[in-house]
Design brief:
It is built from six helices and two strands; from the N terminus they run αββααααα. The chain is mainly alpha-helical. The chain has a two-stranded antiparallel sheet with strand order 1-2. Helix 5 packs across helix 6. The chain is globular, with a radius of gyration of 14 Å.
């Protein structure tokens, strides 16, 4: 399933927070529309040379920039040894740098895939 990265991000936002930019989840550890943990933000900031802090995840535009930096670091063809898929991206977002390989992220991917299919069918 070849899809546009922004379509995937919008679907992830729906799955993660139902579009709520001020969402707090995972026992208070996940912030914003993409439900980012502090380590995720710090990791992306380090890679991108930015000074993002956890609270920046509450801003949708910044949250998307953080997401893109994190994926720029971990969801790459060089790192995975093959073409990166929407599944890889979603599972890395959910499970960290090795999320694409973790059984625990399959349920999350199935939820994202169902929402993607629904979104793509509704946009025909």
């Amino acid at each position: 399933m070849a899809i546009n990265i922004m379509t995937l991000i919008m679907v992830l936002i729906q799955v993660e927070s139902a579009g709520n930019d001020l969402a707090i989840g995972d026992g208070g550890k996940a912030y914003g529309c993409l439900q980012m943990h502090a380590a995720y933000v710090q990791d992306a900031a380090e890679f991108a040379g930015e000074d993002w802090v956890h609270e920046d995840a509450f801003d949708r535009e910044t949250s998307i920039e953080i997401f893109l930096a994190y994926m720029g670091r971990y969801a790459t063809e060089d790192r995975l040894g093959r073409k990166v898929s929407a599944e890889d991206i979603a599972r890395i977002h959910n499970g960290g740098l090795y999320g694409y390989n973790r059984k625990a992220t399959l349920k999350y991917w199935n939820k994202v895939r169902a929402k993607l299919v629904d979104t793509l069918n509704n946009n025909k």
